[in-house]
């Protein structure tokens, strides 16, 4: 037997639990099979084809992590289950929800999964916990930037609730600010097609960046971006004019200076600093050593360097400097963390069985969930 075969034989067997993962977000739901690097399907929570039979089709399914339309949540869960061909995988369901999802909402989801979709066992995880888990550490600061901003310090697997910071502004406000800047430059956004917001959003993902210091950024020549789009019979070209400062960079400053969009609230770096300082003194340096960026907007070019630079200027008295995690920044960070849990570290006894849930729904969810 070769040395390689011996090493392979000695490797401990992982307790792999094949399951369906459902990541519930306010605007999107991601789902697929554990062990896959990315979700197989992403749907909008207000997708018209998904909810055409619902009695209140215009009401959101979720608002800031709370269920506002149970009928829609049921439709989403059923759709997620219908995409899975393997019956045995559908029997085990892992649900990722927000830090602020109430226990009553979890009970409703559990009831639907057990009684309607006939799941045999389920498990709930909070988004910040699994975002942190992808770094293989149980201590750090999770900075989630999407439609909202949330800063969540976690120490040895426990959320430090007293140090959480949350603001209900984010990508939507940045997008609106960008559109205002483009219009001031003389761009007619109606020329971008039937959905100018989507076009501008795609452009921001492609050309957007964050400056270390926008006031010191050297001005460039005025730019223009050509957009080719198809109409019914022809292909048209629209030109988006930009100033020397570049609106696709300038708009992101609203994250750090909300006063630019008329909000009297702390900016992103202020919120991070506040969360660290509100954490217990003995935990601060460990938390600072593992700052994890998550959420779709966290993928913006230059954002990690800007946060790193801002925090280094604010924490000069500490023996260490804040460190942004080197793990890949992605809107699917929760998915990566959940897969690590599902495929390596989750013991069978940690799952909630239907029998356990029927005995005492609220208590079992409290006892067995992160």
TrEMBL record:
Gene3D superfamilies: 3.30.420.40, Actin, Chain A, domain 4 (3.90.640.10). It comes from the Eukaryota. Pfam families: Actin. Belongs to the actin family. This is Actin. It comes from Anaeramoeba flamelloides.
